[in-house]
Amino acid sequence: MFDDEYFMRQALREAQLAFEADEVPVGAVVVWGNKIISRGHNQVERLNDSTAHAEMIALTAAFNGLGSKYLPEATLYVTVEPCLMCCGAIYWSKLGRIVYAASDPKNGYKKTTAENWPFHPKAELTHGILAAECAQLMKDFFARKR
């Protein structure tokens, strides 16, 4: 029952909260031992902070909740390919696994790093889980803006 799709659906719920708040709809959850230990969604507009990405908020909450600066046993689920800034935070958190849904050719890490690995050397990466649903939410958001 608690598989990648389940946890990505939880991240998608966070993205929906961002959408409803008129934020770019990206959501994230951090999972440790099959339990969600933190959640986050974009709050750039609300906080007037260009670093308030879903991943950053979820990671900070996880660090604070565990009292630890490293998350080697954790998995980050995020609805959109992380940007380069978030990759830096993911790298330094030493996350064991990263799972993202939709690719982001405009702002995702691959735009800058190409095929170079931006995550911790021991990290595992999975992508494409619920990609169509997560991408559609982004398309709907930007269509509404135009």
Key traits:
single chain; alpha/beta; globular
What does this structure look like?
The protein is α/β, with parallel strands linked by helices and 146 residues long. The protein has six helices and five strands; from the N terminus they run H-E-E-H-H-E-H-E-H-E-H. It has helices at 4-20, 44-47, 54-66, 84-93, 109-113, 131-145; strands at residues 27-32, 35-41, 74-80, 97-102, 124-127. A five-stranded mixed beta sheet has the order 2-1-3-4-5. Strand 1 (27-32) and strand 2 form a beta hairpin. Helix 1 (4-20) packs parallel to helix 6. The protein is globular. 38% of the residues are buried. The mean pLDDT is 96.
Give the structure's gist in a few sentences.
The chain has 146 residues and is of the alpha/beta class. It contains six helices and five strands; from the N terminus they run αββααβαβαβα.
Topology readout:
Layout: H1 4-20, E1 27-32, E2 35-41, H2 44-47, H3 54-66, E3 74-80, H4 84-93, E4 97-102, H5 109-113, E5 124-127, H6 131-145
Parallel strand pairs: 3-4, 4-5
Antiparallel strand pairs: 1-2, 1-3
Fraction of residues in helices?
Answer: 40-55%
Main sheet summary: 5 strands, mixed
* Beta-strand share of residues: 15-25%
Class per helix and strand makeup: alpha/beta
Number-wise, the strands total 5
Task: Report mean pLDDT, rounded to a whole number.
Answer: 96
Please tell me how large the radius of gyration is: 14 Å
Give the helices and strands as they follow along the chain: HEEHHEHEHEH
Strand line-up across the major sheet: 2-1-3-4-5
